[in-house]
Design goal:
alpha+beta, 3 helices, about 35% helix
Length: about 100
């Protein structure tokens, strides 16, 4: 679970983006060591239920959740994505 402490929050949009980037980095790191992940976005519709369950102070706002687990089969291997050349990804501005 990812909560933001509203008493320490800097900017709502920037804080949400920072937490999103943090979650993404955690997902990438987990996949690197063969841990399966699922970013649960729909949990936001259950903020009050989750906050009550964890007895969270009202200054904390739920912004995301991630589930982690191991693959059922040890033969499951994560194949790294194809690496693209930088020239295929960046457009050059031409006059």
């Amino acid at each position: 679970m990812f909560f933001v402490d509203e008493t320490l929050a800097y900017d709502e949009i920037k804080d949400a983006m920072s937490i999103g980037a943090t979650i993404q980095n955690m997902l990438l790191a987990a996949s690197w060591i063969n841990i399966g992940t699922c970013w649960i976005g729909d949990i936001i519709s259950n903020v009050s239920i989750i906050s009550d369950y964890f007895d969270m102070n009202s200054c904390y706002t739920l912004l995301g959740a991630v589930s982690l687990g191991y693959f059922i089969s040890k033969s499951t291997v994560i194949i790294p994505p194809k690496r693209y050349d930088i020239h295929d990804m960046v457009l050059e501005h031409r006059k």
